[in-house]
Amino acid sequence: MKNIKLIFSIAILSIALFSFTTINTSTKYKCMVQMTNYVGEGAYVVISLINPDGHYEKTLYVQGDDEEWYNDITQWWKFQGKVRADIDAITGATISGGERAISVIQIEDSKIDAGYSIRFESAVEDQEYYTKDVQFLLTSESVKSKTEGSGFIRYVRLMPN
After folding, report:
1. Predicted pLDDT at 60
2. pTM of the complete model
3. Among 43, 50, 66, 110, which has the highest number of CB atoms less than 10 A from its own CB?
4. Rg for the chain, CA atoms, rounded
């Protein structure tokens, strides 16, 4: 009888705990970055989620896998250097002038139409660093559109995957 009461108590407790748990759904997006025709080394491009207060919330993807150069992306490095999030699974090769790269990024659905932005920072060795090469609000429309860059990035296009 004690075992039945124990099992029943555990079941009730489990139901109570899970009924208050929210499930964060997310969507994968193909993200194409088209670079300008610059001359020089491959660019490091960091894609970040920016919260409504304008602060970094999460690193979504990094084009460039040599950690030695991450500190050249100074604004992002102030965030990443402190939190030291493991970004190994979301890194790829640098992108050279005129090239394009397609990656897959994952964004929580609750961040869309909620004041969050996505930022693309770019840096090239011995050249410029663009903190907001591309930045736009995450809206239902912008996650299906093309946005022009202002530095090494010609444009970025997102497409739901």
Report:
1. 96
2. 0.83
3. 43
4. 20
